[in-house]
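Run ABC-type multidrug transport system ATPase subunit through structure prediction, thanks.
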Amino acid sequence: MPDARGAPPTVLWVRRLFRRLASEGRTVFLSSHLMSEMENTADELVVIGRGRLIAAEPLRDFAARSTRSSVVVGTPQAAELAAVLTAAGASVEPEGSAGAEKLAVTGLPAGRIGALAFENGVRLDELTTRTASLEAAFMELTADSVEYLAGQPR
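Sure, done. The structure for ABC-type multidrug transport system ATPase subunit is below.
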């Protein structure tokens, strides 16, 4: 499979070829450790670790099951909003450097966070849903299946 090191026209041509073959009902099997390429190419993902099947499912389900999304909230009223969101059942952590007035929120969707901010008179400068990458999901799910980590056998 060509990857980011390949010429862009070649990479796009190969992706289109795989899509066309799949649309004809053919099975296209790729083996790669480059999750960024899999995100751009595959519909289904099979993950094997130490000879055992870890996952076999649609790519989007794999990422959603394996990672936690969060919402980044920027506000000049971070402490006040943190209290409101915590009371609503969210987990709230400071995001970035101290004094950045940003929060990383899990446990509530962006729409609910925005509504709670509005209801409590809190100004928002940013409200962004952040989903972990497929690579992060892969690393999380295969952590116990790695035979070598930082040059040391497990």
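The chain has two domains: 8-65+133-144, 68-130.
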